[in-house]
Structures are given as C-alpha cells and as structure tokens.
Amino acid sequence: MSDPPGLRERKKIRTRNALIDASLRLFDEKGFDETTIAEIAAAVDVSPRTFFSYFTSKEDVVFYDNEARVAEALDVIASRRPGETAIDLLARAARHTVDRDFHGPERSPESAARRERLIESVPALQARALRLLFDTQRRVARALYEACPGELDPVEAAAAVGALVGAARLAAMTSHDSGASWEETRAAAQRAIDITISGLASLRSREDEPG
Amino acid sequence: MSDPPGLRERKKIRTRNALIDASLRLFDEKGFDETTIAEIAAAVDVSPRTFFSYFTSKEDVVFYDNEARVAEALDVIASRRPGETAIDLLARAARHTVDRDFHGPERSPESAARRERLIESVPALQARALRLLFDTQRRVARALYEACPGELDPVEAAAAVGALVGAARLAAMTSHDSGASWEETRAAAQRAIDITISGLASLRSREDEPG
DNA sequence: ATGCAAAATTGCAATGGATGAAGATATATC
DNA sequence: GATATATCTTCATCCATTGCAATTTTGCAT
Predict the structure, then answer these.
(1) Which nucleotide, over all strands, has the C1' atom closest to the CA of B49?
(2) Terminus-to-terminus CA distance in chain A, angstroms?
(3) d(C-alpha A116, C-alpha A75), whole Å
(4) Where does residue B114 rank: exposed (0-12), middle (13-18), buried (19+ CB within 10 A)?
C-alpha cells in the first residue's frame, strides 16, 4: 500500500495538487461561478477533460481534503479506549475533529476562513458541503455502532451522532451568522457539543430500565 | 394579499400546478436525469424558458411544498402555550412536523414514498433537500429563540434545534437504509426525537448554576 | 534496449441546464 | 378602448458534464 510510489503515482499527485491550487486560487480571485473549467485546466496546462478524471465536478475540488478528515474521525472511533463509554468515545472524536478543523495542520487559518466564505457564498457548494456532512455522519454512526457492540443499537448511534453534529453545526452557523469571530464560533460549536454530550450522557441511566 | 385573485393570478397558479404535476409524473416515469426541461414544458404546453420563471432549477419542483411545511412549523413555534417550556414547545413542533410528513394531507402516502425514493436516488435532489433542511433549521431556531425571550440564547436555541433535527434525520436515514418500512422509519425518527428531547430537558436544571 | 499491456491524457462532439435580451401577447386599470 | 404592466415566447449563448476513440505515457518483463 505504501511502497515507494512510482512515477505514475507521483505525477498523478502532482497534477491533482496543481488542479487544487489553481482552482482555489482562481475561485478566490474571480469567484466560483466566474471561473470555468477551461481556465483551471489552462492554468495547470492539462486538457479540460482531464479535470474530470480527477474530480467529478467543479464543486468537488473545494472539498479535496474531506476524505482525510473523515478518515481521522473514523480512526478515533476505532481506537476506543478501555472503559470508555460510547458517548465518551463520540465526544472524543468530536473534540478531535473540532480541533483539527480550527487548528488543523493542512493550511492557514486564513485559507480555511476563505474557504468557509466561499462555501457560504455559493449555493452549489453549500449543497455539496451538506451532502458530505451527512455521508460522514452515516459513516461515523456506523463506526460507533460497530465499535460499541451491545451498547447501542444502530438507531441510537445515529441519533447520538446526528444530535451532536446537528447541534454543533447549527450553533456554529448561528454564531457565524451573527458576526462572531473565528474563535467565538469555535467556542459556540464546542458549547453545543458539550450541551449535547451532557444530554446524551444523562440518558444512559435510563437505558436499563424497562420501557 | 388575499383579494379575489384575478385571472392573471389564477392562471399562474394553474400553470405552476401543471408544471409540478407534469414534472413529478415524468420524473416518476422516466427518472429525474432522463427528463428534460423541454419535455416538461412540452407536456404543459409552455415555453421551456417559462419553466425557469416558476422554478429556479429542475430540482426545485420536487420541493414545491417546502415553504408551506416550514410555515406550519413556524406557526406552531409562534403559538407557545402558557407555561410551556422552550424544549416542550420545540418537541410539540417536532411532533407536529413528523405527523404532517407521514400522515400529511397534501398527497397520498404512496406519492410521498415515491418522492422519498426519488430524492434518495438522485444526488442533486439529496443535496437540495439537505440545503432546505438547514435553512429551515435556522429559521426554526430563530423563531424558538424569539418565542422564548430570556429562556435561551441564540446558540442554545440552535443547538437544541440542530440536535433534534439532526438526530431525527439521521435516525430516519439509518432506519430506512436498513430496509425498514415507512412505519418503522417513522417510529425510529420518533424515538430519536424522544431521546433527544429527554436529553435536552434534563439539562435545564443545570442552566441556573454557575458555570 | 525493446515490446507489450495497462493507465492516463487528449480532442471532439453532443447533451442539456441555465441565463439574458427583445419583442409579442394577455391582463389589469382607468 | 387606451395604456401600463405582467407574462410568455423566441432566439442566442454560455458552460458543466459525459461518451468515445485516438494518442501518449508508464510499468514491467523479456
């Protein structure tokens, strides 16, 4: 899987990165809708057709690192610690992801904020972002369910993940909408997570009772 | 606003309904992607261009009744009963919406299920659905905040709404994914709502303590 | 080195959604 | 009726996206 990558692989990665860089730069300079595939391809000196062998759509470029993010979250879920409850595990994954999103290694906070603004301003990107968010939640819910055999049923896992992500996301949106800073928004998301985790945790005692 | 609607208004409504009916019928018969705007327009005997003066995109037709649904939910929020807590109010709105979605008056359960299947099978429609869902949540969160002055701050309202909707939605998706029936899915959504409401309600006691 | 198979890239053409503009037509208002 | 206005049609255009066939590049084995 991680042998010395051959020339073919290296070239592919280089092209992919070049497409990402050119795309994000152009989106930032001219706007998303105003940037054509032809321009992106020209900037990287490949055929426009080639763009679509790397990304399924213009929107996809913006979320180039999504898969890596999800993989990290799933890793956390998979690394359940002894004695850790399902909710605690979920909370840890949430914390990890928030930290990664706001202090992540990938790119500067400026570029992250720029991307947020871009997504915010383009309906097609908002739609894609939400789609990815839901796909992610499904995968996390399934992973959580599988990491905690006998402790949760699939619907409970889904409810927990959905509640947590839903709360964090809408809280962040609301905070952001009201003009809050990057840090304040992060804090709002964190608070929403804490609230939801407490709520979910307080339910566990009820689980054993007859219903 | 509700004067005797003139001929112009009536014709507009008639055209709009005809476009909706023809669209849904064709989507069902041939599939979404396989149906072109030209065909829809031809079926209603209007110019293709006219379609876009009624709907901003092909996807929009499928969600023709969304605005009415949201309006109902907001009505419930606005009709807070004496002594009703914010969370109880939210729970009531959620119950109302679930009932409406599953036993609603609009169209038959079959057509509702058909629509679900359609949305499920077309990525573009899923994306639009999620987009609308989030817009709705924002509006509901704001309404809830305004209906309960002093009881919640905006971030808490957002967290509550986000948690509730997120839990219900992902639970329903998960249930549906596993091949559950319409009724079972409804039950799963209801259970997720109950779980989340209990969790949120149990937090209220903590609110007054110093933090 | 050389040949061959697989993978990647390219050019080309076609589809179809979406938008803009100008003119024709129908409806409302007086 | 006459005029203002909303609506619809026609026509032109842009561009994302896809399929296909031809061509080039790489991996690998001789």
Answers:
(1) D9
(2) 49
(3) 25
(4) middle
Average of per-residue pLDDT across B147-158:
89
Residue B177: count other Cβ atoms within 10 Å of its Cβ.
14
Tokens of B70: 């949201």
Please give the torsion angle defined by the CA atoms of residues B75, B79, B85 and B86, in that order, rounded to the nearest 10 degrees.
30
pLDDT, position A3: 54
- Tell me the per-residue pLDDT of A108-166, one tens digit each, with 9 for 90 and over: 767 888 898 899 889 899 889 988 988 899 999 999 999 999 899 888 898 899 889 98
Residues in chain A within 8 Å Cβ distance of B178:
154
Own/partner pairs for A90-93, CB < 8 Å, 24+ apart? A90/A144, A90/A160, A90/A161, A90/A164, A90/A197, A90/A200, A91/A164, A91/A193, A91/A197, A93/A140
Dist CA B175 CA A154 (whole Å): 8
- On the question of pLDDT at B1 being above 70, the answer is no
- Is there a contact between A162 and B177 if contact means CB atoms under 8 Å apart? no
CB-to-strand D contacts below 7 angstroms: A 6-9, 11, 35-38, 48-49, 52, 56-59; B 8, 11-12, 15, 45-50, 53-54
Rounded, the Å distance between the CA of B45 and C1' of D9 is 12
With an 8 Å Cβ cutoff, are A155 and B174 in contact?
yes
With CA of A52 and C1' of each nucleotide, the nearest comes out as D17
Across all strands, nucleotide nearest A60 (CA–C1'): D16
DSSP class per residue in A110-149: HHHHHHHHHHHH-HHHHHHHHHHHHHHHHHHHHHHHHHST
Encode pLDDT of B14-59 as tens digits.
999 999 999 999 999 999 999 999 999 999 999 999 999 999 999 9
Measure CB to CB from residue A154 to each of B156, B164, B178 and give the nearest one.
B178
Tell me the domains of chain B and their CATH numbers. 7-56 (1.10.10.60), 65-204 (1.10.357.10)
